[in-house]
């Protein structure tokens, strides 16, 4: 089936709207998920739970009515693999509030190439990918904190999509305590833009292409969408000979491939320099481990007229503002991991990205709902206070 026919078939299969009663006494609140239906996923606690609905891939507007007639609440909502959608929505006893957000869901299926043409019909997934609430045939929502959810409405929506291509510092990390800025970004945008995070732990620009992740991303891209491109951490590894790229030659060339593919579809490419690793020198300054790649990306942005989000510079400012003693509290594995972040650190980096969007992307800026952010004066972990998800793992993200 051709891509246009596939999209038409998918649209026809999507329901016009779905409504669920998730109040405490509702049967739907206690129904166990069965393939093709809806219900609760395993692992729920007395307070927190995951609720899934079988749906075709695409963008959906999710509207939640939060509150309870009998008790106060404080509800956070995450989608799929811990994408933060709503944070700490407080309701008094008897009070109800309504909030909406967009969720992008996908499967690994690709429009199959014609006979004798190169390519594949599915994204190449690892066992870890298959265990996540990402590459499946359902939308999964996680309700956390002191959740009080009266009802849930889901409807397909045609909306601009912000695609993310990158590595472990961008991807939707599946398990606590690791987290990345890409999975925090949805909470900083309004309900008129969907975030489709295709980033992969351990990915390089070459592997992202050979695993057909780039093909998957491009298969759904349309005019007016955005493509944020952040690679470097793994691309610089000479010990990975099949995917290593030189900052002066092959790295810029590969960046231009991604830029060209987005522009060919009428989408807007945006380059994002990789966040620095947390290595302090004796003077309390962050040591440079990615400079040649960040400089190469800045050069491509200038020469090709591509907007640049300089997260490398902002990350250095954030870590140095926190200082050597506090900065580890923003990182995975109790600070022993100097590359990957926890919820706090990921939220800080996403705030920096949101602020850059506000200042350099005039078409996307009106959709930013996050408050103004200065990386030289980051808020404390107590001020951010993101409720942890139900799934935990002591395994560090790939590519560390």
Tell me what you see in this structure.
This protein is α/β, with parallel strands linked by helices. Helix content is 26%, strand content 22%. The chain has 11 helices and 14 strands. The strands form 3 sheets. Strands 2-3-8-5-6 form a 5-stranded antiparallel sheet. Strand 13, helix 8 and strand 14 form a beta-alpha-beta unit. The longest helix is centred in the last third of the chain and has 18 residues. The protein is globular and about 60 Å long. It comes from Sphingobium soli. InterPro entries: Galactose-bd-like_sf, RhgT-like, SGNH_hydro, SGNH_hydro_sf.
Quick one: overall form?
globular
Tell me, rounded to a whole number, the average pLDDT: 95
The quaternary structure here is single chain
State the end-to-end CA separation. 40 Å
Q: Helix fraction? A: 25-40%
CATH topology of the largest domain, which one? Rossmann fold
Would you state the CATH class of the largest domain? Alpha Beta
Number of domains: 2
Structural class: alpha/beta
Strands of the widest sheet, in order across it, are 2-3-8-5-6
| Biggest sheet descriptor | 5 strands, antiparallel
Labels describing this entry:
SGNH_hydro; five-stranded antiparallel β-sheet; SGNH_hydro_sf; globular; single chain; 2 domains; alpha/beta; signal; 400 residues; 11 helices; disordered N terminus; Rossmann fold; five-stranded parallel β-sheet; Jelly Rolls
């Amino acid at each position: 089936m051709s891509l246009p026919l596939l999209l038409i078939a998918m649209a026809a299969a999507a329901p016009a709207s779905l409504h669920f009663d998730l109040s405490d006494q509702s049967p739907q609140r206690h129904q166990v998920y069965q393939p093709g239906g809806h219900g609760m996923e395993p692992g729920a606690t007395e307070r927190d739970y995951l609720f899934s609905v079988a749906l075709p891939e695409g963008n959906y507007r999710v509207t939640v009515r939060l509150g309870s007639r009998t008790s106060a609440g404080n509800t956070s909502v995450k989608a799929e693999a811990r994408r933060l959608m709503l944070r700490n929505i407080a309701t008094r006893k008897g009070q109800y509030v309504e909030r909406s957000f967009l969720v992008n869901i996908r499967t690994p299926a690709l429009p199959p190439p014609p006979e004798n043409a190169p390519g594949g019909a599915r994204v190449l997934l690892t066992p870890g990918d298959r265990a996540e609430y990402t590459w499946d045939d359902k939308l999964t929502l996680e309700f956390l904190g002191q959740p009080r959810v009266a009802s849930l409405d889901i409807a397909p929506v045609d909306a601009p999509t912000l695609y993310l291509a990158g590595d472990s510092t961008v991807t939707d990390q599946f398990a606590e305590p690791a987290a990345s800025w890409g999975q925090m970004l949805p909470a900083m945008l309004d309900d008129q833009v969907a975030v489709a995070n295709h980033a992969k732990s351990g990915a390089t620009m070459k592997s992202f292409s050979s695993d057909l992740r780039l093909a998957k991303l491009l298969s759904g891209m349309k005019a007016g969408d955005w493509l944020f491109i952040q690679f470097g951490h793994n691309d610089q590894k000479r010990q990975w000979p099949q995917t290593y790229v030189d900052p002066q030659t092959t790295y810029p060339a590969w960046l231009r491939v991604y830029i060209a593919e987005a522009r060919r579809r009428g989408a807007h490419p945006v380059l994002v320099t990789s966040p620095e690793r947390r290595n302090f020198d004796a003077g309390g300054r962050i040591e440079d481990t990615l400079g040649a790649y960040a400089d190469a990306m800045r050069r491509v942005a200038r020469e090709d007229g591509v907007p640049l989000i300089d997260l490398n510079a902002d990350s250095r400012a954030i870590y140095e503002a926190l200082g050597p003693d506090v900065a580890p509290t923003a990182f995975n594995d109790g600070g022993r991991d100097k590359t990957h972040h926890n919820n706090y650190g990921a939220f800080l980096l996403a705030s920096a990205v949101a602020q850059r969007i506000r200042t350099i992307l005039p078409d996307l800026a009106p959709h930013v709902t996050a408050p103004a952010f200065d990386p030289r004066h980051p808020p404390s972990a107590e001020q951010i206070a993101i409720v942890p998800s139900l799934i935990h793992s002591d395994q560090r993200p790939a590519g560390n």
